[in-house]
Amino acid sequence: NALTTWIHGPGHLAVGASTAVFGTLGLFTFYEFARRNRLKDQYPRTYRYRPFATLLAGAVLLGFLGMGGGDGNNKVDVLSHVTGFVSGSVLGVIFAWLRWPVGWSERHQTWAGYGCVSVILGAWALALGA
User: Fold this and answer.
1) CA 29, 30, 32: angle at the middle one, nearest 5?
2) How do the residues of the chain divide into helix, strand and coil, expressed in percent and rounded to 5?
3) Which of 15, 51, 90, 113 measures 20 to 30 Å from 40, CA to CA?
4) pTM greater than the 0.70 cutoff
């Protein structure tokens, strides 16, 4: 949402859960692309085209779910969806390059859950206090 506001200017209003959803889609798409691309080197016959299938799937989902109805009267913020996807894609490439662990321990997952709940409660506290 910050990137969209920077592009549109301060008068732009964005409500942004969908931006996070498309950011997650971009992250998963490009993380999986990089992971499958590494497997392509180990198993050239099996994984020859699979990395590109993830890019195609991500692009198709962005197109079907993020571009609105096409009638011109909808109020879909397409730029927010695209910037969310691009931002998530950058994070996906970074996480794949760092070889971010795929599975976390139970303790790490518990703390990540606490962090998510804290962010949600903090956002509500800010929204209700404003």
Assistant:
1) 70
2) 70, 0, 30
3) 90
4) no
